[in-house]
TrEMBL record:
<dbReference type="InterPro" id="IPR051681">
    <property type="entry name" value="Ser/Thr_Kinases-Pseudokinases"/>
</dbReference>
<protein>
    <recommendedName>
        <fullName>Protein kinase domain-containing protein</fullName>
    </recommendedName>
</protein>
<dbReference type="GO" id="GO:0004674">
    <property type="term" value="F:protein serine/threonine kinase activity"/>
</dbReference>
<feature type="domain" description="Protein kinase">
    <location>
        <begin position="1"/>
        <end position="103"/>
    </location>
</feature>
<dbReference type="Pfam" id="PF00069">
    <property type="entry name" value="Pkinase"/>
</dbReference>
<dbReference type="InterPro" id="IPR000719">
    <property type="entry name" value="Prot_kinase_dom"/>
</dbReference>
<dbReference type="GO" id="GO:0005524">
    <property type="term" value="F:ATP binding"/>
</dbReference>
<dbReference type="InterPro" id="IPR011009">
    <property type="entry name" value="Kinase-like_dom_sf"/>
</dbReference>
Length: 103
């Protein structure tokens, strides 16, 4: 969920691009976002409110560090996961970037 959606403020297409970044994270790691985060003392998964608060603040991003993930996938994912919605690429931007990497 995009930070602006969590905050309950106005949101639009950039929130969808944030979601695309989340999907890239899931493809890269084969896990749901933040599944790798554990409480340092208990080893249990972090509570959802902790994750939501830190995503909203921009201090927490899902990982894109899966085995064999190309650097360009990480780059596009990080762009999509930008805290500032104006810094996120549009769907057209991502389409153009992806066309550079067609086999």
């Amino acid at each position: 969920m995009a930070p602006e959606v969590i905050s309950g403020t106005h949101y639009g297409a950039p929130a969808d691009m944030y979601s695309f970044g989340i999907i890239l994270s899931e493809f890269a790691t084969h896990q749901v976002p933040y599944a790798d985060l554990r409480h340092p003392d208990s080893g249990k998964p972090l509570p959802q409110h902790y994750v939501l608060d830190h995503v909203r603040e921009g201090t927490l991003h899902p990982t894109l560090d899966g085995e064999g993930v190309p650097a360009w996938v990480k780059d596009i994912g990080l762009q999509c996961l930008s805290l500032n919605e104006d810094d996120r690429p549009t769907a057209l931007d991502v389409s153009a970037l992806l066309s550079l990497y067609e086999p």
